[in-house]
Amino acid sequence: MNNKRWLALGIAAILLVLSLGFRFMSSLFTTDVESMLETTQKKYQEEVIEKGSGNKIAILELNGVIQNTSTSSLLNSSGYNHERFLEKLEHAGKDESVDGVILRVNTPGGGVVESDEIHDKVVELQEDYDKPVYVSMGNTAASGGYYVSAPADKIVAHPATLTGSIGVIMESFNFAELADEYGVEFNTIKSGEFKDIMSQSRKMTEEEHKILQRMVDDMYADFVDVIVKGRDMSESKVRELGDGRVYTGEQAAENGLVDATGSKDDTIAMMKKDFDWSNAKVVEYKSGFELNQFLGSTVKSMFGKETDLIDMKELLRQSEGPRAMYLYSK
Known about the structure:
Largest sheet: 9 strands, mixed
Distance between the termini: 64 Å
Number of domains: 1
Radius of gyration: 25 Å
Number of helices: 12
Structural class: alpha/beta
Mean pLDDT: 84
Organism: Lentibacillus halophilus
CATH architecture: Alpha-Beta Complex
CATH topology: 2-enoyl-CoA Hydratase, Chain A, domain 1
Strand content: 15-25%
CATH class: Alpha Beta
Keywords: Hydrolase, Protease, Serine protease
Order of helices and strands: HHEEHEEHEHEEHHHEHEHEHHE
Protein name: Signal peptide peptidase SppA
Low-confidence stretches: 30-41, 71-77, 311-317
């Protein structure tokens, strides 16, 4: 094959690639861009679950680990968004058309601060906006998931839900012996005795352990107090149940941690019956279109499992330092 034919084939290949590229871009941007941009301005879309002309019940889904990662990574844009969830709770309170709220909780918990922020928003819905809040528990509603559920007017768990795990955990790794074995040396310069507390390069001292244990005990006391107030239980009973173990939904109903067992549909029916809202309209808050979420999903679909490694790296970067968690981990 002579040079002219090679050149012709090369040009044809380039034209083919350009044609496919233009065709893809054309299909992307002919999908009513104006409408898509309008949608980006709407933070919440209301998907009607049950039609009705009476009162209005809003369902908010709480899925994933409760953690404010504050990351700009495209690949982490489709997970739990803490600020967005708080905004949804605020929106449900301020929306005068909403009469009641159901939280669909499916989380193993997460950060102490983040869990407390959600808890406070739930209480605000009840006290400042005078709106009942019911909780429908999914597969898991443990630790921080139970913390945010505790103040609800009614908690409904599936019989097989894993809930409970009442307590606080703080963990770190200690690589000292491994480093010694492979000749790795750590150099630490610090301003105070406890600046490198929970350091991964050495064994924890007894005094450091006491300091951290006091912190965890204080946070646990806050957790207990939330349940005492939310569930109208005695402190002794809460501490008896709150030894860190998980309970099934059935067990939780027996020991008073939840009010009833049932599904999300059962929870909706209970709220309708309890407040005589037989003709209530039920909507579910869906997040509006977000460009970074769209691009993140697209990248994941293109590169598949390779993005899991990037996700893990990002989570490790976000969790460089040890922190106290209301978290159920297996």
